[in-house]
Amino acid sequence: MFWFIRRLMLSIVLLWLVFTVVFLSIYMVPGDPVQLLLSSDAGSADTAAVEALRTKLGLDRPIYVQYFDRLLGLFRLDLGVSLVSNAPIIADIATRLPRTLELIAAAAVLSLLVGLPAGVAAALRRGRTFDRIALSVTGFAQSVPVFVIGTLLVLVLAQMLRLVPAGGFIEFSEDPGRHMILLMMPALAISVGLAATVFRITRSSVLEVIPLDYVRTARAKGISRNRVTTRHILRNALMPVVTVFALSLGSLLSGTLLVEFVFNWPGLSSMLIRAVHARDYTTVTGVLLVTSALFILINLVVDIIYAVLDPRVRR
Amino acid sequence: MKPKTRWIPFILLGIIVVVCALAPVLPMADPIVMDMLKRFAPPSLAEPLGNDEYGRSVFSRIIWGTQISLIVAISSAAIACVIGTSLGILAAYLRGIVDVVIMRLMDVLLCLPALLLAMLFVTLYGGGAAALVPIMALVFVPSFTRVAYSGVLTVRSQEYVEAAQAIGASQVRIMFRTILPNISAPMLVQLSLSAASAVTLESGLSFLGLGIVPPEASLGMMIGMARSTMAHAPLLLVWPCLALTILVLVLNAVCDALRDLLDPRPAGGADASE
């Protein structure tokens, strides 16, 4: 129990530090941040606009007042308002975040469905044709940037073969079938690289388990081949896969942002990109805080699952 | 990898670097000058990859775009290497409060996905190659710090470090003359890994229109812009995609080869034997 509380506190402290660093980011810029935010190719902004934005961002108040003001807002789930539309940021995130998470979940399921069995199969046939081909294919798949895969998918499947729409979004409640088709395309684009990663870890993890004593014992007992593979080898080889999978969620999120843009999926990406273009500082920090909170939460959950599975971790 | 084939990635990267470095003197069309008469001109002898929607030479833009990608990626990775390695050595050698402050700060930065962190600073600074280098350097600092930190922890208890302490060498001298050379191999591997992911990050940002600013060319930006005309000019999309994929593939192969060269032990378990 003590371990869980300690681990929880650690996550909360980390979240607080992330908030502090993001809060201070506007002060890390050399020069006047307000001038910078308003500057464009046309030249510098007029004094009235600078002062207006400074008041709006609260930068005219002492730094510690701003800090505690925003920190207290966090407890009320208040991330402030957008500099462009004046709408509360949290409301926009609340409608878009589920769509991004849905996409990530679909991509994760797809890549596990392909990567896990392929990784086990390759490890069992180490050095044979399937193993070699799969190794070079995944090496290639990991190198192609995710937005290149997405763009080429649109070009080939939507533009040339006219099999699927080029992208977009429709609510599940309106048209479930079309929703799934529109979901599958970006999920497929993300899962190419992810499946390759899953394949590689599964393969090397299984290869480490195969020569162990209990596998030999299980085989000697006359347990069927399939049962040894699923019950003895795979179960014990899964831990590293879970770790790397959880750790790759950060980069997965970056990839998802790009793929959402390619397929016009209205998740966090379009909101964020519009905000960066409009120099909407508060919206960008809001999205950043929510995603890093998610990342910290996922790490916490993974650690707890670990501790439940393997009590040795709790030290 | 066999000793003879392990040099191939380095040779390929060398060719790419030389071609990009020679871009100003190569007999190519200007990558920025527009020529409306040549809009969507098909590939010809003079223009092997044709012209884009503004009549600019696609071949020339790809070479110049690769050059910018490499310059931005390598300089940001190099800056991150210098800063990150120094921080890692300081934290691991001095321990105490320095250790806590530096390493916790790196934990925080690692909680923020690379693309998002870069976007935050693009919001504040604006885009363009000059702003992109410090922004991306910041993104890659934590990984260098982590690698240097764990390297120093294994090296600092070695006898030659104790010997240096015994003869009264200064702390700075021990950190940067005694310890640094002994952790240079993993740092070099990390440098190549960061340069490869910097190319991907830069192209991603430019693809979104948040990185390199027009009229300069960048592979990611070319892909982003060719999306709108893909219905009648699909090749305009294919060329930069191909170029970027080859560039990343070569860089990743260099990383693998470098790791094999610097670390002859079969590391990472199973994959090393292939």
Q: What's a concise summary of this model?
A:
Chain A is mostly helical. Chain A has helices spanning 2-28, 33-38, 47-57, 63-75, 89-124, 129-143, 146-160, 176-209, 213-220, 225-247, 249-262, 268-277, 281-309. In chain A, 77% of the residues lie in helices and 0% in strands.
Walk me through this protein's architecture.
The complex is a heterodimer of chains A (about 325) and B (about 270). By secondary structure, chain A is an all-alpha fold. Chain A has helices spanning about 1-30, 35-40, 45-55, 65-75, 90-125, 130-145, 145-160, 175-210, 215-220, 225-245, 250-260, 270-275, 280-310. The longest helix of chain A is centred in the middle third of the chain and has 36 residues, at about 90-125. Chain B has helices spanning about 10-20, 60-95, 95-110, 115-125, 130-155, 160-165, 170-180, 185-205, 220-225, 235-260. Mean pLDDT of chain B is about 80; it is low at about 265-274. The chains are: A mainly alpha (about 325), B mainly alpha (about 270).
Topology:
The complex is a heterodimer of chains A (315) and B (274).
Chain A: H1 2-28, H2 33-38, H3 47-57, H4 63-75, H5 89-124, H6 129-143, H7 146-160, H8 176-209, H9 213-220, H10 225-247, H11 249-262, H12 268-277, H13 281-309
Chain B: H1 8-21, H2 58-94, H3 96-110, H4 114-125, H5 129-155, H6 159-166, H7 171-179, H8 184-207, H9 219-226, H10 234-262
Structural key phrases:
heterodimer; A: 315 residues; mainly alpha; 77% helix; 0% strand; B: 274 residues; 10 helices; 67% helix; elongated
Oligomeric state of the chains in view: heterodimer
Helix content of chain B: 55-70%
Low-confidence sequence ranges of chain B: 266-274
Query: What is the mean pLDDT of chain B?
Result: 81
Integer-rounded radius of gyration of chain A: 24 Å
Give the beta-strand count of chain B. 0
Structural class of chain B: mainly alpha
Helical content of chain A (DSSP H or I, runs of 4+): over 70%
Number of H- or I-type helical stretches of chain B: 10
Strand segment tally of chain A: 0
From the spread of the alpha carbons, the general shape of chain A counts as: globular
Distance between the termini of chain B: 7 Å
Through-space gap between termini of chain A: 11 Å
Q: Bin the strand percentage of chain B.
A: under 5%
Beta-strand residue fraction of chain A: under 5%
What class, by secondary structure content of chain A? mainly alpha
Largest interface: A-B, 60 and 47 residues
User: Mind summarizing the main beta sheet of chain A?
Assistant: none
Helix and strand string of chain B, N-terminal first? HHHHHHHHHH
